[in-house]
Batch of 2 targets.
Target 1
Amino acid sequence: MTAVLELKGLEVAYRQGRHLLPAVRDIDLQVEPGQTYGLVGESGSGKSTLALAVMNTLPTNGLVTAGVIQVSGTDIYELDAARLRTLWRENLKLVPQNPLPSLNPSHTVGRQLAEALGFQRVSSTSTPRVHQLLARVRLGDVERVAGSYPHQLSGGMQQRVMIAMALAGTPKLLVLDEPTTNLDVTTEAAILDLVRELVREQGTAVLYVSHSLGVVSQLCDRVAVLYAGELMEDAPVGKLYHSPLHPYTRGLLDSIPQVGLDKTRASLRPIPGQIPSAALLPNGCIFAERCPIAIDICFTDRPHLEAIPAGRRVRCHRWREIAGGAVTARQQQPAPPQSPVSRERPAVLELKKLHKHFEVRRSLPEALTGVARRYVRALDGIDLTVQRGRTLGLVGESGSGKSTLSKTVIGLVAASRGEVILLDIPLARNLAERDRATLRHLQMVFQSSEEALNPYRSVGQTLRRPFQRLQGLGRAQADARVADLLRAVKLDPSYAGRRPSQLSGGERQRVAIARAFAAQPDLLLFDESVSGLDVSVQAAILNLLSDLQAQYLTAYLFISHDLSVVSYLADDIAVIYLGLLMELGPTASVLEPPYHPYTEALLTAVPPVDPFAERPVLRLQGEVPSAVDIPSGCRFHTRCTRVLGDICRTQEPPWQDDGRGHRIYCHIPLEELTALQTHLFGRRTIRDEDEDADTSRGIAND
Amino acid sequence: MALWRFLRSLYNRPSSAFGTTVVLLFLLLALLGPLITPFSATEQIFQDARQPPSLAHWFGTDRLGRDVFSRVVIGARDIFTLAGLGTVIAVAVGTLIGLLSSYLGGLLEEITFRFFDSLLAMPALLLALLLLGTVGPSRNSVLLVIAIAYTPIVARVVRSVVLGTKTKDYIAAARMQGERLPFILFREIFPSVLPALAVEAALRFSYAIFLIASLGFLGVGVQPPRPDWGLMVNEARNYVALTPWSLYFPAAAISLLVVAMNLMADGLKRVLQVGETL
């Protein structure tokens, strides 16, 4: 049987001025019919370039400089424009990361699907086919969806429409380019379920490109790891995860935080250094600079991708030693930071009945006819305490009010009702009304490393300001402190002279952290501060944060949609839904039963890194309701899988307390919840210490 | 060094190289002025009246016997001073108002920019005629007219950048460090306004030249006997059959400088990569 996709010696380069920069080199790959092939890589690995090359949709400055791409035996770069269009229409489909730009904003979804099915216009013959297609991607209420314009649908629904469009033919190959990266974890889980089912039903071959090892492990039969444009390792999924042969694969696996693994038990093992740029590739192995077990030959000779037993391939000089267990690429485990905090501590921050309601703008006729004012109830009565030296993690889906909470606390948005109390002093609602002493105690690290630093100011200029403004130091003294500060975030003091554009994303985020730490605040807010970073970099930042906390006893309020990150760093976890907390407690208790049904759904949606982990499937139905019309009774009842009955729809639930600080906002008694629910995270994780021994055994058994 | 690199990048493309060269040449002429003009700009030598271009009179003489080349060169001095000063005032005031009102936002921004919109609704020339009608024609009035006509335009350009910048996280971070308003405006935001502002200033300058010439032509701008280009065109147009050169040379000077200035502004836009921020 011919392979659906075959790449032979592929090299893709981008023209930059007079130079050709190779983004992808020497790729050999085969996707068999019905196979789901994962392609994993960090940013700069060339994975998107590869996806574009496979589609023959490279940007105008990109070109295939060597090798062949064959789809079902046809070289797609030999086809003329008309044949290529036929191929795209029938056999080769792409689902992009961001669906909205790929959908025409001025046509309804139904019309676009009809076109994709080959109909000239919407008619009585096309409509049933369109509905059938929408039903296949599990969209309920197909008529409403078909009549909607793309912007009227949520991100998850748009992505389903894209998948429906891709299925309009009977494609032989489906290329999915990070289709779930911008989605909530619950939506992501549902989309992954869908892809898995469709593959099973239809036998379509899939090339799944992702930065997330967790997602790929759950979906794919086989995984190729891409680094700086080259394949490092390629193996069946189970082998790759349980006995990785390449040091880079090992490094990636070790730097992923996993739910159930927290900072007191183990530090993450980041990969030091940075991905080399395509313009300055080393002579030897491209990973040698960052490799913990590189030897002389690694710096002089570039290794080949060797085919080895059990259908694996690896590009490493030392794979035999690794397979035999003679060396391990596993980094020395840094000692977990001495968490100084085990018992109750004085509160640094208290939120009391915090509300933020945004008024929905009424049109003039509405205002004149006396239509009642309506409010988006973004925060609807939050009570929360952050203790000195501890980390409170706040998790929730998008639209839950997480970001409004952080903005209200720092005063960028004025609270409507309730109080923000810092060190026993109620804070002014607006940032402008807060005095400098207050500002000094409360700092924030933002989400985007791009926007966090002023591109026109050098690192030194940025970092000396908090010393000058908040600690009243003179310019010379402030400059002197900048060097210490840079060292504290593990950057060289020479970085003071650099501009943000000369730094990598991780380095920029370090500078942003340094700026927040400069005034030695009592409380630091993190709003999705590590979400945009690659896992290997993210691990280093998370380690840095827990070190800094142990050193300065700073309290953290850590807001993220990523449960694995939160559960790694946080001492306590709060779960927020539609502006109200659902569950609150110490991390360990939140991660074991009883769970609030919402927390349970969030936790089961997190893709476990171990491909064979058994996880009960529990999927939330529908979307987060609008914060304008919050459901009555328990606001979660519309999506809850464990609704008791009318009581959930009519009465607000009580806060149930287990007596050890774990509180759940639910009608179901705690004992009953415990009995219903299974333990989602066992003690044993992929990172347990006996696992290196497994590596050698795994190979021997093959 | 940075200036050198900057100029070199302007010379990367023929059109902006041409524009920049012409503008610099005019600037040189204006600076040297009396040092290179063979005659006075206002002295009337009757026996030399109505001479076609020759070695003695490069651009010929007008009907009153004034040397056209000298008048064009001295006129360049006038126009560079007036247009330059007017542009500087418009850019300074427009930047200040634009930064402040669009950063603070709210009612202040609303009122300022609605007022500016109403000013912009009128063609610049009409606005200028209206103003000059009230204050009377003089060099200072021309300056005032340019400043008033172009301040709203500059303010709008500044605003478009500020609106994109003020929501950035680094501005929030600055506020959380207790930075005062002037620091945020001039140290944090202004640098990102600068590229767009440089392009706009170059454009405004070229339009100011045009406006001054138009006003001179209509007789409400610079007054005789000063050698204003627009005025020269106006004076010469009745004698175009007799002394066409006294019309052609100042007219050519106007178009050449305005076109060159525009080409340079285009080059600036490319080098500073404005457009991405606008």
Target 2
Amino acid sequence: MSQLVQIRPLMPAEGTFPTVPMNALDTLWFQVAGTICNLECTHCFISCSPQNHAHEMMTLEQVLTYLDEAKQLGVREYYFTGGEPLMNKSIYEMFEASLAQGPTSFLTNGVLIKDKVAERLKALSDASDYSFDVRISIDGYSAADNDPIRGAGTYDRILAGIEALANVGLNPVITVTEVCGDAATRAGRTRFLDFLKKIGLSQPRLKILPLLRMGAEEHRERGYHRWESLAGAHLSKDELSALQCSSCRIACASGVYVCPILIDAPGARMGDTLASTLRSFPLEYQACFTCHAEGLSCAT
Amino acid sequence: MRDVTRVAFLGGIYSNYLALEAAIREAKKRGVDQIWALGDFGAFGPHPNRSVEILREHDIPAIQGNYEESLSTNAEDCHCGYTDPRDNHYAQISYDYTFENTASAYKAWMGTLPKHARLELDGQRLLLCHGSPRTINEFLWRSNTPTPFIERMLVEHDTDLVVCTHTGIHWERRDDRGRGVVNVGALGRPANDGRTNVWFAILTGQGGRVDVEFVPVAYDHHRLAREMSDEGLPDEFVETIETGWWTTCLEILPAKERAQGRY
């Protein structure tokens, strides 16, 4: 995989584009593990892998600095992603600091969640007045569906992670991409919820995500078609407000970007501080088309 | 801005006219100066006109919820703000029934109501809204409405206390000076705690700060459940009234609130 996927900067499409205003910074993401991951999923839109250092891990100091600024700005919620957040050696201190000032979620592939990790996460959740959500990705109802995407043996390890969380009383949100055949249909959704009940989640919570045709996904199935862009589009105020970039930013080790999807786009880096990024942004990337057309939000 | 000292706030009524009558009786017994309704008079329960008639009969001042906004503008759905297909499925059943069974004159009246109101309670400035000050259908749950966000909201909307509903579960988060958010809960359905009573709130201005009391309301929930069944409303709705556990519109709950319920 890592030999095949060439990491290259994401460039804007051609044309003239609508601009999204920054309405209010409600959601702050942290690309806390950079693009470094213990897995190499074939549909990863930022091509995360053990070798991908396009974005480095964030330090505790960096996260605390942004949290402090976020507090002043009245941010409502926090998300930690990567890469695999649990690979960051300061992750628990980061969670603790985040949970002291707001609801916090983190996105994980789940394979590192052993009993001890689950207990630690549960203790963090119990100690906070705010909600703490663990979001685990899986790509199918069986190893035969999942493992070709997420890697050999990952299905069993993901289920073990989910089970470890359920055993301590944490109820993860399960994320499935549209790679999982029928997941986006009503019948598929019901089937998936039943599946989650069967594997021990009595109150199953499910989020279906559309595919972003970039990064590794470009080599798995396809890249974006030329027409898949917002060139020449006119979006209403409500349509613009529905886009997550009207209310979120993502802090990376290298600065603050417009949203979690565009961190490979040099043009999406908006500044060094949160305050410096509270301005409008042109929707000139093809992924912007997916967010608008599919109603995609990375938040739960 | 009106100056009063003791005010009852009724959250989403959701056509639970039996609980509405019981709450008004209880509020009057407790000697409130005023009763306010914070929107969503219809939804979920039976015979939506009855709640409107009771509110108007008692001359209760009210603001719009997302239901009043949708009903008065002939919208196709309730704009409840759910994101999950199952939640939206049940929300649509609820809205279609309410739309069909609400008198046109009442829909027009709903359109005349304001979306916000301001009161002053012993020097504290209150901003009444349905969801949040900025959006009629924003969900302010306890576990996802942190203090820094509340402080921003109070500054942006120039108030000391936001009084809201929309989520269906009552809570408050206030600082040492009593500034913050009070979500008054709902009269329409129980608080997902396995008890059949519903809730409203009484705010009392006292010595420069506001005291908040959440008041449980018992009512004839068996009768409401029977009437809901007779009207052909979903068994899932009836079960909630009978058991106190939410069976629908669950996916919008944050982790902590979800963990407290049965489903």
